[in-house]
Structure formats: structure tokens, C-alpha cells
Hints:
single chain, three-stranded antiparallel beta sheet, disordered N terminus
Amino acid sequence: KEFPPSVPLEVIDTEQEGIVFSGEIRDGRPAIEAGTIEKLVERLTYEKYSDAKFVKAFMVTFYSFSSPYELLYLLIQRFSIQCPEWMSKNEKETFERTVKRVVMLRVFNVLKYWLNTAFYDFDEDFALLSILEEFIDEMNTIENTTYRNVANSLRNYIKRKLANRNRENDDFVSAQPPNPDIPIAITPQNKNNILTYSPVEIARQLALIEYSLYNAIRPSECLSQNWISLEKERLAPNILKMVSHFGKISCWVKSEILKCTDLNQRIQTLKLFIDIAENCFKFNNFNAVVEIISGLYSSPIFGLKQTWAGLSKKTISICEEMHATVESKNNFKELRRELLRDEPPCIPYLGMYLTDLSLIESDSSSFAGLINFRKCELLSNVIHELKAYQNTPYVFKEVSIVQDYLNN
Length: 408
């Protein structure tokens, strides 16, 4: 590929086998179109420049073309880079200073990034963690204070992650949660009646339940359309749980309204669900808004003309505005606009991201057996947006009696 003449030749190096450049320059770096796993790992730890965007894209998508074991092996191999034998003494000294030392430190940086963003790879696989710890032990034998310090920092980082594995969100839960809105008298007769509960509290408890489901989704589940593959239960368990929850809530909305034998009760129940959806909207739980709205706009419910006629114009207007915001028209244009305006905590509609990921996966471009890294970058953009909303939990108190009702 031809690059603009303003790009320094030393950062291009386009004549390597096993890697294809697109010809674009992004942030002063030549964009990679495709490559072998070995060449991509080489760029991950490249001595001539660092590329944070490349690291982010690679580390969130490598599960689709490699495995944690292969990546760790290749990083260890890359760390052990040796000077070519044919080099003169001066050339070897230059290589040690400008290539080997830089590559070794880049490997450490990638490992720390991996531990920070996907520690579960090691926490849930003792063999993988053991390989990493053995590598760190070997680094401590190097007669170089810098490498020993970095190795010790990695070991200490692992210890802290193991010690704090269940306290990931402690920094966010220091705020005082609002007092729950709990019914004064709950009896065996009314505990399964939706009209017993406050729409605000139902929305709060839905936010807690759905944040827990959303927060559990991992990048590997979002790749290769794993959620519809033959091994979907193994490859995308948390996406499937959230999809299943979506279906249950939508069915619950319909069944609660349809089981009402009295028109006034049916109107009350319909209004309550609109109130719940409105509070979910206020709490930025757009996944729940879509769940409820999809139930309300289903044929059996939308066709209840007398029931809808019993609502006030204001209530109907609120419902219509929410529907207009979350509908799939123009690729969820209004919902995406709303997400840009809102601050976390927030639960986006998962189906929107699954649609984006499926569209990207439909690209069948091939590069003669090379990994399509351009596709990986596009997938990474979606996954990082999805992950961004996993960082801030809701500060609500769990109300077991309401959660039991919702989960039953």
C-alpha cells in the first residue's frame, strides 16, 4: 500500500510477510488490515512505537482467532527476543538498547493491561495463571533491576486482584441509596399482585437485576455471533441469560394485563407498566424500557382499545415518547442519541449491540488465511461501548420481597 509522504518511513516497514496495511494513517500510525497471529503479537509489542488503540482492539477480540494460552505463549516468546547472530558487537548493543529492552517492557505492559481488563482469564484457569507466575519467577532471575521491579509489580498486581476479586465496585457504592418504597402490608393474598408494589421500586429492583446480568457479559461472548452458535450455552452464557430475561419480562407485561378480568383493573395495570417504564427511563435502564414497551406494543395488548382509551392523554403521550426513543427505526437512531446525553449508571438495550455485532460479522472479506484485523477493530468499537456501561453500578438497596416477585 502507498502511504502519504509525510509519514516517516521507519514506522511503516511495509515489506514484512504476514501483515497487510490498509494504506490509512490513524494517529500517525499505519493502519493494519490483516496479519498472522505472530505478526499481530509483534505489533502488540512493537519496538518502534506504541499503539494504545491497537492494543485495546487486539485484547478484546483475540478470543475469536486465538486462545489465552496461545497469546500468553507468544508474549513469553516475544519477551525472549534475541539479537541475530550475524550482528556486530556494536549492532548487538544497539539492538539490546533500542529493540530488546523496549519489547520486553511492552510485553510487561500488555500483560498488565490483560490482568486489569480480563483478570477472569487467569482467575478461572489455574493452569494459565501458573504459567504466568512461572514466567514472572523467571523474570526475577534477570540481572536487571528494572525487569525485576516490573516482574514484582506484576506479581503484586495479581495478589491484589485475587484479594479484591469480589470488591470491584466498592468505589461506586459509597453514595447513600434512596430509601426503598416498600408496601406497608404484604400478605399471602397480595404479594403476587403487581398493583401491590410501587412502580418506582419495581424499576429500581429491575435496574439491580439487569445491571447484574449486563455486567457479567464478557467480550468473548460478543465475538463470532457466539450467542447463536451451536455451542452458545458454553460460549455466550451471560448474553443468553439477558436475552432470556428480556423475553420473560415482556411476557410478564402481557400476561399481567391479559389476566385482568375487570376493565378498571386492566387500565390500572396498563398504567402501572407505563409508570414502571417511565421510571426505568429516568434510571437510564433502556433495556428494561424496551422489554416493557415491546410487551405493551405487542398485538394482544395494543389491540385492547377500551383499555388504552381509559388512560389519560398525558400517560399515552409518555408511552408514545418512550416508544419513539427506543424503537429500532434508523438503526436505533434516537436511542443512540439518548445514550450520548445520559450519564452512567446506564443499561443500554443489549439487542442494539447484538445487531451491530452481527452486521460487522457479515463482512466476509478474506486475506488469504490472515486474520481480518479491520473487522476486529470494528468489533472492538462496539464491545468497548458495551463494556463502558459495566463500570458504574446502581446505588439502590436490594428489596428481597420485590426481587422475589420479579424473579418468580
